[in-house]
Amino acid sequence: MPEIRVLIVDDDPLVRSALSHFVSRDPELQVIGEAASGLEAIAFTERDVPDVIMMDVQMPEMNGIEATAAIAERWPEIRTLAVTTLEGSDTVLPMLSAGASGYMLKDSSAESIVAAVREVHKGASSLSPRIASMLIKHVRATEATGADRTDPLLPLTERESEVLNRLAEGMSNAEIAHALIVSEGTVKAHLGSIMSKWHVRDRVQIIVTAARAGLVEFR
Questions:
Q1: Which residue of 49, 64, 89, 137 is 20 to 30 Å from 149, comparing CA positions?
Q2: pTM of the prediction?
Q3: What is the 3-class SS of 81-93, one letter each residue?
Q4: Which CATH class is domain 149-212?
Q5: Distance, CA of 6 to chain centre
């Protein structure tokens, strides 16, 4: 019985067909619909709420950034995974800031994209390696120039800062727990506290917020 209901949003019907084929091969994933624009995605979601939306960025009528922001506001329980060819910071950062929980490039393997659907459904984050690298370079440039600084964030405790720094290193919850000699439950609690303080909803949003404030050093 499929556990994860997926909506595929892309203005190219061939891409939609290919993604649907890859996703449908996993017995725990079910494609419940397709849409060709952000407006169609919202209209579909009003009728039948998916668990995960695979969202292209560049589309007519309403692009993926606008649609993701609208969906995140109205249906915060839905996870959005960007699946696109665009990999510049002028696209990646707005998409993540709009509420996407992951960002995969279309030239990623089918296995990687399906794994990303699973990851974002669990509340984790998933970034293509090139996207992670770009994000790191952007943060380093921001730290060097002082640009893109936002309003002051609520301060973190010492332990929350330790969790944040290891999150920025790309560690999973289990790896953070091992490094800090605590339980995974404790790590999740610290991450939850950071999300609450900064009014963000997942690990990607924590990283983006910390990056813009110059609070993390990537390794």
A1: 64
A2: 0.68
A3: EEEECCCCHHHHH
A4: mainly alpha
A5: 15
